Amino acid sequence: MTTLLFFFFFLLPPTLLSSPVQNPEEVVQEVNRKINASIARPRRSLGYLSCGSGNPIDDCWRCDPNWEKNRQKLADCAIGFGKNAIGGRDGKIYVVDDAGDDDPVNPKPGTLRHAVIQDEPLWIIFARDMVIQLKEELLMNSFKTIDGRGASVHIAGGPCITVQYVSNIIIHGIHVHDCKQGGNAMVRASPRHYGWRTVSDGDGVSIFGGSHVWVDHCSLSNCNDGLIDAIHGSTAITISNNYMTHHDKVMLLGHSDAYTQDKDMQVTIAFNHFGEGLVQRMPRCRLGYFHVVNNDYTHWEMYAIGGSANPTINSQGNRFVAPDDRFSKEVTKREDAAESEWQSWNWRSEGDMLVNGAFFTASGAGASSSYARASSLSARPSSLVGSITTGAGALSCKKGVGEWLIATRHALSIAGVKLDMEAKIVDLLLTVAFDVIVAIW
């Protein structure tokens, strides 16, 4: 990045900077409480209050038949380290009705670029299905939500989304794929400022010095560099319910081993499906604290979770399905460190399902059998990950579907109780009903 951009960083108001949570274990426990409450509620209330999918984010909004009229309620549904990302909750609705991006310096009203650069909070939605091919990086301003629900929105074929030195960003319900490098061009970042951009990496979503960021229910694939990368002091991030496919270096969290500001990075990675065609970095971590909970890893070629420079990795209730290659069975990979160094790093696995010979090499406090006993509350069992993540990726949201979901889940919950069915069987039936109704509707 240019000297000008680093100078801009030091001029930022303090409110855009985020201090790390002093006790990240408390955030982990809060996430696990919400997950457990979501799965338990149908047995107590017989489905009146929740879909009870075990996915507290979806249960917070997805069963509401009036979700389209209550879009901004989504901002209250995040969990984990990015839970305070409010996006454009307190602002107006901005409707994008123009898929063009003719002028990155003077964007036309009605385009996505015109929406995201504004100073005021905005909740950005789309008038119809559209494919947006950006000419340059989409530089977002603070307090913005990109909400693709109700339309099929693709950002593809050009540079993609950059969250640089801004805060309170929600990116929800869009397809991001085939992202290219941009740069060596002028690009506007706000109504008052535009400047020269050097060559970008070509990430799907690039978070650079950003905080309070939530990326949820997006489908990401086949970008030039990472699908979602967070570097240079970024923190307070939740990456949830995404479906990622066909990519090499999926997710980089931390700029370099020497960039010590990333020790304050705290990221929650929950309910994602890491699918076909993925190779490595799901994620690759440096220095910070990373809670990886209830994700479904069905494909990798080299490894799933890696890191260097002593990150804390807390893996709970994930399903790891190893590839058939006998040399790629290990979930974990330590980079640039001898065993004598990494054996003190705190990497722990609790309740993970290891399939087809997969194995997780724990270290530090996570390698101690006393850790599991000391943990007061676990994530949902990894056996439920398939149902929890069944809706990962951009959804096809339909008006009025919520009440049908509640009614069906209510009926199946009652049936499960009467038949004295195992909880996991009831959960599976509820999830199948959810998907069938969405497909039919």
Automatic annotation (TrEMBL):
Highest taxon of the lineage: Eukaryota
Keywords, comma-separated and alphabetical: Calcium, Cell wall, Lyase, Metal-binding, Secreted, Signal
Cofactor note: Binds 1 Ca(2+) ion. Required for its activity.
EC number of this enzyme: 4.2.2.2
Protein location: Secreted, Cell wall
Catalyzed chemical reaction(s): Eliminative cleavage of (1->4)-alpha-D-galacturonan to give oligosaccharides with 4-deoxy-alpha-D-galact-4-enuronosyl groups at their non-reducing ends
InterPro entries: AmbAllergen, Pec_lyase, Pectin_lyas_fold, Pectin_lyase_fold/virulence, PEL
Record domain Pectate lyase: where: 129-326
Class in the EC hierarchy, top level: lyase
SMART domains registered for this protein in UniProt: Amb_all
Signal peptide: 1-18
Protein family: Belongs to the polysaccharide lyase 1 family.
Protein name (Swiss-Prot/TrEMBL): Pectate lyase
UniProt organism field: Vigna mungo
